[in-house]
Amino acid sequence: MQRIFRLIESGEFHEGSRLPAESVLADRFGVSRPVIREALSRLRSMGAIVSRKGAGSYVQYRAGAQPDQENATPFGFVSSLSQIRRCFEFRAAVESEAAFYAARNRTPELLLRMRKAVDLLEKAVSDGALGVNPDIEFHLTVAKASCNEFFGFVSSAMRTQIEFSIDLARKLSLTRPRAVPITVQAEHEDIYRAVEAQDAEAARIVMRRHIENARSRIFDGSMNVGPVTSVDERTA
User: How many domains does the chain have?
Assistant: First the structure.
C-alpha cells in the first residue's frame, strides 16, 4: 500500500489515471493478487483511489496536494506506519478528554446510540465479523456526547484517519486468538459503563487505555488479553 501510494505521490500514477491491473501490480511488486487487493482496499479507505465497476481503480489524489474530494480534511492521508502510530497518539490524547466530558454531559439519546454501537460490536465479535462501522460510530458518538463542538469537529475531520486505524486494528485482531477481540469488546464496554455512570475520570482513563492498547496490539504484537478489571478497579 505504501509503495503504491508513493508512486501516486510522485506523479507516476497521476490524478485521474487508471491503475494497472491487479496482475500487473502483483508482478511489479512481487506479491500475490490478494495482497494487491488488500492494498487497494486500504488506498480506497484513505480516499487515494476510487473503484469504478467494470473499469478498474482510478487515482483521485493529486500529487503534492490535498485530495480533490468532498470529504477532504486538513489532516491528509495516513500513508506510513509512523503516521499511523502518531494518529493513535493523537487519538489517545483527544478522545480521552472527549470521553471525560461525555461522561459529564451525555444525553439519554446519545447514550442510547453508544449502547447500540456496543451491542453491534458484541454481535460482530460473536459472528467473527469485522465490525468497523459500529466501532467508528461508537467513537464519533462519544465525541458528540461531550457536547463540545470542537471535539465533534476534530473527530469528524479525522473520520478517514480514524476509520483507517480502526480497520487495521480490527483486521489484525481477527488473525489472533479469540481472546483478543473479546478483550477489545470489553474495553468498549468499560468506556460505555464509565460514561453511563457519569464517572468522568474513569471514562478518561479507560478511553486512553483502549486506544493505547490498540496501538500496542498493532505495533508491539501485544495481545493485551489479561483479565478485564472493573471501572472502579481501574481508577483505584
Answer: 2
* Dihedral sign, Cα of residue 55, residue 57, residue 61, residue 63: negative
Which DSSP state fits 18? B
Give the 3-state secondary structure of residue 59. Answer: strand
Report yes or no on 72 lying in a domain. no
Q: Could you tell me how many residues make up the chain?
A: 236
Longest CA–CA separation in the chain, Å: 58
Residue with cell 439519546: 109
Same domain, 160 and 200: yes
* Each residue's pLDDT expressed in tens, for the chain with a length of 236 residues: 878 888 887 889 988 899 999 999 999 999 999 999 988 987 886 678 888 888 899 998 665 544 444 444 445 556 567 788 889 999 999 999 999 999 999 999 999 999 999 999 999 999 999 999 999 999 999 999 999 999 998 988 888 888 888 988 888 888 888 899 999 999 999 999 999 999 999 999 999 999 999 999 888 866 655 444 444 444 44
Write down the number of H helices and E strands in the chain: 11, 2
Q: Which three cell numbers stand for residue 205?
A: 482513563
Cα gap 154→185, rounded to integer Å: 24
Same domain, 180 and 95: yes
Whether residues 117 and 51 share a domain: the answer is no
Tell me which residue range forms the domain holding 17.
2-59
Indicate if 55 and 91 belong to the same structural domain.
no
The answer on 146 and 55 residing in a single domain is no
Q: pTM for this structure?
A: 0.67
Answer whether residue 16 is part of any domain.
yes
Q: Are 88 and 214 in contact (CB under 8 A)?
A: yes
